[in-house]
Amino acid sequence: xxxxxxxxxxxxxxxxxxxxxxxxxxxxxxxxxxxxxxxxxxxxxxxxxxxxxxxxxxxxxxxxxxxxxxxxxxxxxxxxxxxxxxxxxxxxxxxxxxxxxxxxxxxxxxxxxxxxxxxxxxxxxxxxxxxxxxxxxxxxxxxxxxxxxxxxxxxxxxxxxxxxxxxxxxxxxxxxxxxxxxxxxxxxxxxxxxxxxxxxxxxxxxxxxxxxxxxxxxxxxxxxxxxxxxxxxxxxxxxxxxxxxxxxxxxxxxxxxxxxxxxxxxxxxxxxxxxxxxxxxxxxxxxxxxxxxxxxxxxxxxxxxxxxxxxxxxxxxxxxxxxxxxxxxxxxxxxxxxxxxxxxxxxxxxxxxxxxxxxxxxxxxxxxxxxxxxxxxxxxxxxxxxxxxxxxxxxxxxxxxxxxxxxxxxxxxxxxxxxxxxxxxxxxxxxxx
Amino acid sequence: xxxxxxxxxxxxxxxxxxxxxxxxxxxxxxxxxxxxxxxxxxxxxxxxxxxxxxxxxxxxxxxxxxxxxxxxxxxxxxxxxxxxxxxxxxxxxxxxxxxxxxxxxxxxxxxxxxxxxxxxxxxxxxxxxxxxxxxxxxxxxxxxxxxxxxxxxxxxxxxxxxxxxxxxxxxxxxxxxxxxxxxxxxxxxxxxxxxxxxxxxxxxxxxxxxxxxxxxxxxxxxxxxxxxxxxxxxxxxxxxxxxxxxxxxxxxxxxxxxxxx
Lengths: 433, 261
Known about the structure:
The complex is a heterodimer. Chain A is α+β, with helices and mostly antiparallel strands.
């Protein structure tokens, strides 16, 4: 249907976090090249945090990303604590896990219902949906508000929280507020059911590409906060501290984001990778949601990442309820943050909504940062997104109009929920040739 | 006619746009009163002219500066949304080194040399320095902070709808902190930027057990010499004091201490 010779460049793809462009080049009906260009300007965090002290680093690198600021804080905090030889208390870890869960719910709700669903319902954005599907939009807004309030109870505010610090907690959450969040989560369970029903009705583009799935893995639970790094290719784990030989980062000129490869040319991280790798560790309620969504693992359709995110929303709801009960049952005891010894290197990793996130810091004997590195999920996914596009594009070109080719490429990019601080401005789409 | 509102982002975490999306309770009401014509993070729609353009992020490359000038030319009011646009935020600290050194630290020297040699993609890598947007275009209003305070955004929109112009009233976070009855950070044995920082955040960080780090920017008439003396009395040396001023305001301190730009 889209035979002939033509090039489309979708610049500044919309409804993604950050700036990226997609370029597809078709010559005589066959796809010559599909490229994802990440055009985001550099901010040089890994350079300018050198010289900073351990406590400042998690607070500053939170600013890498608004959507997953909690994850950046947690990964950086864990890295700094590993460098300084700090073992946080069980209470501190429990509160951090709750903070992380709240961000998963917030981010997944935002992505599925505000950024991805409009594509499936044929709308350019969530705005027209507010008129055509008001219940869906209002429900999503209520779920998002609940998740934001959840983050604020534990973090002090929703964006760039300030209550947690290296070694412990500056200000503990108020137990009445914790109880209130628990009550609201329980009350919202029917809302979550209805949201699942909405997603269950959405069509899924027919495409599969089996690849390597990488995620944290924990023997006792669905790993979101801690664990080792699992590969679906080796069916084994590697320690977080070996992340450099996992990510094998490299740079290409067309993209200011670095790329990663492990056992193949690319690997996938994020909700689908986690659900594929650790389905049996999900809460039973989340496994039921997977069944209702028709998500069977292993699933090789990257568009199903949206469904995997919905499964994880359910998991995070129920995991949160269990942890909130622990907090309410045991109460909260003020503790002095644990101090460490300056000097040394530490690596920390957490799962964030878009995949596994690594932070790595080295300090001199005066406690100043002398080297810093962070590997974010989207830079790990960029090569996988491009490989999916290359695998799917030839069929798209045969079966779809040019407009639908563009839409499905954008949807594929959005399915990964990229965090390139990114989006495609439709008016910039140029048909050439 | 409902005002046509647009959001744009440059180098930032896009958290300030998220902070706007986080006004869940009032978002749908707001949409009755304004037309959001561009909001890349949330919408695919695109407009051509704007009554108010909210700009998030700092400016690092000439391609970004050109895009910003274009937005300015098509906007009746242009508003700096958040610390990156207002002050350059934490990334302005990267200005202490040359772009070549920063690239080498982040990508490694070999990779830097390779990508920067590719002429087709040169504009992507043509980092100059981190600039607040006011160094590139005229700014009508600042919504400060990292992140912005949603109430300030809503209040500003109220002014736009009423056809009035909001006043920027320079006063210090310290006054809001005192009004909130928070025990002084200095009394806790720590140091604070609250005396010299633009208010409007209702001292959220000190209320939550932290200190003020000055994310809303240094007050234009702040007595930095006196503040520096206070910080010295509380045990900081000049290097540590400079680091504190530079944490969120590296681009702003020089401007104040060395006089107007």
